């Protein structure tokens, strides 16, 4: 049977739930097919550099600026998005990062940035580094470990200035690791913006158990260790109720959890491994969400798993993500209470790492609220994706930690401190409270306004919002975060970013894009110059009329046989993670895949394009198994082309003429038919209906 590829790993029993260990099965023939060529990210960076050289005004660049690539995203159609950091006369520019968007040809399209004009300022400090460090240390509360400083250009807000960025490492009064950053004006000595690079859930709660869950571990001599080789060697360790400073917690710190029978914990706090099972499941669930939904391999998308430390500190009633050491910490909570190991907390904290590796949102101002909201959003989606019986998914943050939830996404102001509606003063709030605007937006986008099983969500403008569901809402936010947000993105700029993301994924005239606009208005973030558009206006020449054309949103917008749209690792996508897999069973079977589009009467040369890969166990030139590319127009079905097992191939682009259907609403349909023996798989990806 196709679509069954099991990883060779060790599974285990936790509190009575048995998942039998399994070896690797024989790998299907599909796995031997050469993978499609990867997008050339080196070329994308070069294109971005060429664009900056040719269009310096678009990125506020001068001859004193240099740029380094921070991350690269190449879309299915070859469009490039290169996030670059800026240096001015050799100094890092805080708030100077830029995303350069280029066409598949490499031609410059647009830029995303917050810097308002080119930099022009002296770079010789009048205040010494030592003096700046002393001033910063005076702001730090807790136990200091070390202090470092570097000269930067502060372009985060107002007039850019020369500054010392001082980092005071240590332990905060609540036992959290701290990387306390202070900007000190290098000319006047005035102390400015401060923030902590260590992020916590800001809870005082009383953790909980995730119940009976399967865990993937590593066999060692004499037993097993809580390390997951299938998820980048993500590991859970015992902090032994100690705290750490500097590289908190440093590599090798703490004690490994080992066990002889591969059963971890006993469901009570009498066993130190019980909360280790919670934390390890949090690593797994977060990894699986990002991998299966967004095609992201680990927090940094580099295949490396995170570490978790449980039993951190003495009665430490918090949890947090430390980007410096790439690790999670969980305290045991206040005396008599449970540890701080809730699943949405794990997803929340590790999502801070995703934000750091992508948009790099600041931890103050509107960007700070967006940073925290992003973690609440993805922590919630991790919870929904895991769908654990022990923790029914909801839109409450940390509801099992204390007697009341830490935050409410349906109406954030219910906690008494968060904002539900954006104002120009939102930027002055603590990020955990300004995050309410982003949380409220996401709830409206996913669930909608008014009463539901999840809560009761009012809108700030009195309007009505119809939700598009978690899947679409999550993919829009992820696309906005990774493709259009920079370190200083504001709430109005986040509106622009998410509208662009919705257009990319679903089209300008889609219900998803319209819902994004309504949801932002529902939290009082006013419209910008970027709108969905759509309506009855014909799409521009060359645009793709198909929604979700590369299937990266899963089985949405398409009608298909069960299991056709998939990210199964038994075969490969042309690009991204998802693709359509028709047939491949080796028995009499028919699969279909279809989507309805309207082809404008004004189209000059409309075409259907797609990439097709054919893998077969048949031999010879007889067509036993076929794939038909068809157009259904009312009661009439026209077959544009037929492919078969007789012409096996790797991914090849196919282009078919749709001129006969101009001015008509038709259904594009693929029908795969397999005979009674010997499997043939038809793989389709990166589809397009273009207007010429």
TrEMBL record:
Entry EC number(s): 3.4.24.-
Biased composition (Polar residues): 239-248
Subcellular location: Secreted
Domain FTP: 65-107
BP term (GO), one: proteolysis
Active site, renumbered: 349, 432
Known cofactor(s): Zn(2+)
Signal peptide span: 1-28
Chain spans, region Disordered: 226-253
Composition skew (Basic and acidic residues), residue ranges: 228-238
UniProt xrefs under InterPro entries: ConA-like_dom_sf, FTP_domain, Peptidase_M4, Peptidase_M4/M1_CTD_sf, Peptidase_M4_C_domain, Peptidase_M4_domain, Zinc_Metalloprotease_M4
Keyword Phosphoprotein: no
Keyword rRNA-binding included in the entry's annotation: no
Protein name according to UniProt: Neutral metalloproteinase
Organism annotation: Streptomyces nymphaeiformis
């Amino acid at each position: 049977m196709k679509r069954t590829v099991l990883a060779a790993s060790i599974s285990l029993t936790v509190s009575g739930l048995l998942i039998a260990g399994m070896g690797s099965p024989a790998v299907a023939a599909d796995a031997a097919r050469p993978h499609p060529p990867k997008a050339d990210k080196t070329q994308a960076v070069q294109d971005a550099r060429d664009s900056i050289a040719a269009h310096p005004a678009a990125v506020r660049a001068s001859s004193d600026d240099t740029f380094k690539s921070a991350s690269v995203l190449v879309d299915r159609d070859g469009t490039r998005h290169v996030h670059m950091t800026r240096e001015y006369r050799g100094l890092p520019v805080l708030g100077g990062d830029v995303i350069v968007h280029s066409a598949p040809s490499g031609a410059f399209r647009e830029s995303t940035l917050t810097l308002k004009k080119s930099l022009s300022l002296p770079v010789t400090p009048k205040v010494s580094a030592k003096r700046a460090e002393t001033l910063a240390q005076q702001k730090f509360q807790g136990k200091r470990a070390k202090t470092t400083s570097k000269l930067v250009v502060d372009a985060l807000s107002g007039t850019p200035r020369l500054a010392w960025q001082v980092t005071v490492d240590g332990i905060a009064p609540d036992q959290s690791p701290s990387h306390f950053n202070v900007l000190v004006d290098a000319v006047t000595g005035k102390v400015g913006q401060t923030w902590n690079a260590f992020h916590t859930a800001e809870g005082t709660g009383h953790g909980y158990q995730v119940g009976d869950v399967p865990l993937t571990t590593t066999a060692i001599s004499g037993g097993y260790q809580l390390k997951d080789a299938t998820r980048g060697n993500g590991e859970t360790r015992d902090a032994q109720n100690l705290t750490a400073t500097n590289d908190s917690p440093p590599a090798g710190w703490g004690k490994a959890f080992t066990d002889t029978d591969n059963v971890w914990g006993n469901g009570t706090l009498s066993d130190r491994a019980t909360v280790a099972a919670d934390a390890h499941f949090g690593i797994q669930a977060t990894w699986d969400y990002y991998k299966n939904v967004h095609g992201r391999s680990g927090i940094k998308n580099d295949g490396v798993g995170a570490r978790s430390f449980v039993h951190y500190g003495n009665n430490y009633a918090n949890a947090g993500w430390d980007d410096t050491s790439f690790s999670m910490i969980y305290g045991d909570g206040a005396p008599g209470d449970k540890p701080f190991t809730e699943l949405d907390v794990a997803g929340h904290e590790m999502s801070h790492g995703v934000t750091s590796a992508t948009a790099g949102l600041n931890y103050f101002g509107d960007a700070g609220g967006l940073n925290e909201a992003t973690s609440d959003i993805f922590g919630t989606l991790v919870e929904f994706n895991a769908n654990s019986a022990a923790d029914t998914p909801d839109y409450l943050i940390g509801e099992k930690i204390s007697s009341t939830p830490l935050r409410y996404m349906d109406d954030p102001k219910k906690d008494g401190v968060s904002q539900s509606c954006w104002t120009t003063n939102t930027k002055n709030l603590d990020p955990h409270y300004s995050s309410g605007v982003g949380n409220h937006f996401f709830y409206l986008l996913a669930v909608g306004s008014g009463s539901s099983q999840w809560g009761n969500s009012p809108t700030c403008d009195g309007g009505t919002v119809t939700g598009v569901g978690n899947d679409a809402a999550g993919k829009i936010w992820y696309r906005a975060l990774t493709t259009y947000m920079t370190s200083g993105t504001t709430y109005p700029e986040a509106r622009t970013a998410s509208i662009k993301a919705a257009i990319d994924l679903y089209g300008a005239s889609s219900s998803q894009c319209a819902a994004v606009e309504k949801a932002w208005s529902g939290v009082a973030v006013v419209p910008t110059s970027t709108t969905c558009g759509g309506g009855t206006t014909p799409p521009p020449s060359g645009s793709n009329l198909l929604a979700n054309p590369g299937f990266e949103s899963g089985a949405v917008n398409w009608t298909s046989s069960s299991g056709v749209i998939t990210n199964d690792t038994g075969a490969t996508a042309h690009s991204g993670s998802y693709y359509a897999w028709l047939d491949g069973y080796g028995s009499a079977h028919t699969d279909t895949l279809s989507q309805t589009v309207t082809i404008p009467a004004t189209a000059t040369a409309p075409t259907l394009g797609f990439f097709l890969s054919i893998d077969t166990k048949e031999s010879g030139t007889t067509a036993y198994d076929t794939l038909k590319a068809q157009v259904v127009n009312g009661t009439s079905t026209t077959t544009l082309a037929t492919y078969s097992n007789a012409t096996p191939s790797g991914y090849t682009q196919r282009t078919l003429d749709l001129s006969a259907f101009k001015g008509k609403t038709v259904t594009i349909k693929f029908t795969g038919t397999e005979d009674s023996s010997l499997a043939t798989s038809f793989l389709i990806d990166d589809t397009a209906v273009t207007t010429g």
